[in-house]
């Protein structure tokens, strides 16, 4: 499974290289699966799951086309199981 994300490498104040990573999320208030997660009354979020075969497209996309990837992954293709 591929998740859309961003990364950056920068020098901190001491001159050391630091790597920074983040996974992109979108609103999931209406998603049949993810709307049941997070606290009641709070905005629901889900990571941007990339369809199989789109990983290279995400990595090569110019910034102006990146927004095209920010859509919910079909919930019927995911499985949620309780953790004991």
TrEMBL record:
| Record Gene3D superfamilies | SOS response associated peptidase-like (3.90.1680.10)
Q: Which domain of life is it from?
A: Bacteria
Q: Which InterPro entries match?
A: SRAP, SRAP-like
Please, one GO biological process term? protein-DNA covalent cross-linking repair
Q: Name one GO molecular function term.
A: single-stranded DNA binding
Q: Name one Pfam family in it.
A: SRAP
Q: Which residues cross the membrane?
A: none
Name of the protein described by the UniProt record: Abasic site processing protein
Species the sequence originates in: Achromobacter piechaudii ATCC 43553
